[in-house]
Design goal:
The protein is an alpha/beta fold. It has one domain: 3-Layer(aba) Sandwich (Rossmann fold). About 40% of the residues lie in helices and about 15% in strands. A three-stranded parallel beta sheet has the order 1-2-3, sandwiched between helices. The protein is flat and about 30 Å long.
Length: about 70
């Protein structure tokens, strides 16, 4: 799980892409305080990626995590 807006150079999507270099099947949840398109970039998320827009309730976070875990 990573926030999209990170200080100091890399954004959350770049961190996720770097992590997937060594773990291709890594499931990722991006947290965004603004429009999802900022994370998606070119119009899509890779398989095993999801976005949750702030603000959110804990039940929404738990649900999104369960959905990612269920993806094979």
């Amino acid at each position: 799980m990573t926030d999209v807006g990170l200080p100091g150079g890399m954004n959350g999507r770049q961190v996720a892409d770097a992590a997937r270099v060594s773990r291709l099947s890594l499931k990722l949840l991006h947290i965004a305080g603004y429009v999802e398109n900022a994370v998606v970039g070119n119009g899509h998320l890779d398989p095993g990626m999801a976005v949750l827009t702030k603000p959110f309730v804990m039940e929404a976070l738990a649900s999104r995590i369960r959905e990612l875990i269920a993806i094979s």
